[in-house]
Amino acid sequence: MSADSRRVRQTSARLRFWLPVPAAALAAAATFIVSGIIRGTYPFGPLPRNTNDLGQQFVPMHAYLRDLLTGQAPGDFVLNWSSGYGVPFFGDFMAYLGSSLSWIVLLFPRDKIDLALFAIATTAIAVAAAAMTGYLRLLRPSGPVWLAVVAGVSYATCGWAIDDAAYMTEWLNGLIAFPTICLLCEWIWRKRSVVAFVVSPLVITLLWTSHFYTVYMATIGAAIVVLARVLSDPAGGSFLRRIGGGIQCLIAVAVGIALAAPLLLPTYELVKTATPSPDETFKPLDWYDFLSRLLPGSEGVGSSPGLAIGTVMLLFALSFPFNRAVPRWERLVWTAFVGLTLWSMQLPFPHEVWHGFDSPNGSPFRQAFVIAGMLVVVGWMSAAAGVRNFLAVVVPLLLVGGLFYQVQDLPTLTPTTRQVVPVVAGVALLAFLLTRWRPGMFAWVRRAAAMLLIGAVLVEATLSTAAIDEARAKFMHEYDPWGAKQDRIAALMETARDWPNIRVSPSQYTTVNDPMLMGGQGAEYYTSTIQDTLSKALIELGFGYSSYGRAPIDPKNPVVDSVFAVGARVQEKPPGMFELVRREVGPLVTLRPGTPWVSTDPGAFGVQEAALGADVYTVPETELESGKGATAARRNGAFSMRPLAEGATVDLKLTTTCAPGTDVYLWGPEFVGGALISGDGWRQILKPGVKRPGIYTGAPMTWVGKTQTNGSVTVELRVSGPTRIPERAIGCLDNNRLKAAVDQLRQNKPASVDVGGHDVTADFEPGTARTLVISTINTAGWECSVDGGAATAPGTLSGMISVPVDANARSVACTYVPRGLSDGLLIAAAALGLLVASAGLLLIGRALARWRRRRRTAA
User: Fold this and answer.
1) What is the enclosing helix (H) or strand (E) of 405?
2) Which of 369, 416, 567, 634 is most open to solvent, judged by the fewest CB atoms within 10 Å of its CB?
3) Within-domain flag for 398
């Protein structure tokens, strides 16, 4: 045989070996797509699929990413000028956008951003199936090819992937990372080549910048798998050789993580200073509730682990401890490791370790995909060895049947679960019986059995995906995809685009991240990495908040708009019709007196006035008139009120006097109840139950009407439970004074202002000592220099950036520098040097070994 023929045959063999990888990817993607067709969800029907965070975080942020990549966004990858009046972006990029699949947004028009997210999720599921199939083929090359495809699909469509991660798109990167890291370590383990050692850290870096949170969990899971391989691999050579392979894998992973440090460290700094959620105490589940999630089609997002990997792979996994075709020591090690890892999900300390010592608010079993992956791995190892002995067949059927019987009445089971488990288990038993024919006899029967199992797995995965999606949609909020409403708002926003001269706000008519979704530069912003200083500063200015302070609620207040240069805003009036409201506002950068004026008015009224630099509110003493059926008391600077009868609704009144013709605003951040809004009827300020322990929801300052011609003010309130409101909860805004204050700000703007992606430079004429103020909340990372001097952290005026300048100063330059970036770059440089040096040493060692072999041969 010629050399060319051998190469052709080798290439053909490699292609056949890896053919199951794309097959698994296509099959997994097909099940996800067909499940959407069955359900009739977007883009295949009228039902929305933008569940919770998918609609309110991932879709808007991917729209903003598309704007960044196409040069349409006002900020850059360091700072986001669109949200929260200017916020750090590294944390959001790492938490929501870092996936290597996010570039897919460029393939879709902006008004099809929802379709782009569907494509990203489908692709991620396909890649996860491919990665798992590739790892399994490398782990046990002798296993049935068709079963490797089935195993890959079962992993990629596991309960966690569909129930927890499909609407948290970035979480799917953890699903990809677990088998990928296992595959890289297996590559290093088997080949011990320089290429494997160099390429693996680069792939690890890509994974860790995709979604560090779930990839961290995937890395722990891969470490457990590698340790099991080191302790039990019968074909891995001596124990020292196995240890050496494990150490090489550990080094590759550590170097890969270190190379990601320029993104990881700034993100860590942002997470440390983010608005915290209330402390959570982990509570283990009842074991029946816990284990019920092993069954396909079961649903329990946010409360129980999505462990399901399909009935067939579950049966194979349960056969592993009893399969005598697998070496006994290997069975013992892997069974112990899988069992202990499963048990760790129910223990407080391992729970903390899995979640980076920050117990999450909701979804306490976010690491479930690792357990699902390990079950698929042991199931494949058992199937590849051949399931023949009696116990390996009967015990799994009994265990699954017993679990199915015991959990029949639990709410985690869907009707689909109750139908598919017995049917697919029966099909699996039938397929096993058919394969009892001797090899070579009735080969078509064996092929028919394989096709029967493949069909059962794909149908079960599709129906389970549809059932989980349907069950989840019954209690989770869903956002409509981009439609006519978004088209109208986006068109209005485009007509007013004038950044950085003014900000244009889309308000909040679609999501809590509308500025990223619709464009503009509004205050709305919701993320897990929102800085605590930003949340607190906005709340002090009269903003409301939800999600424990992580989502500011814009009060749409003219004073706030004037301070933060919001010169145009979208307004809905009447319902369903939108218009753009413009107003004269202060500029983005202003020069104030050397000692800025400070208001003496209480609460948010005074903070707003100090930010504006003028007295525009009258905040009078108020009286509370309580009718029959309610109690009211004045204590600690607030009115405490409650109905006498449990569940009753009582109307009360706040009364005072202001100048005639002024606008009346109500400020009651903790007021649970309603207020009568002039011309608009009753409006709920805060709903009952929102003030749970910890910071949950606060009300924004609200316009309630105008003073009467005689100056009297009456604000009608309605309460149905215990609540409180400040004694001086009413502020009367004089619009003439506000106009004069805005004119003063406009007169005192710098001669020129240049706003870059994450910096602001202002030039002005020298004169007297002054304070330069940038209408952006001062979060840690901002540094300012005067006339090119040393950069220092700026001061704060009502939460905004302020820089004192002397009479001779001519310019101020402020730049946002992510904390931890310089340290991250140093760590990455050191890791890169270590990688290059290690690769060089390996190459030299290999060259020396070849030279010695040639000398021995020559001798």
Assistant:
1) helix 390-406
2) 634
3) no
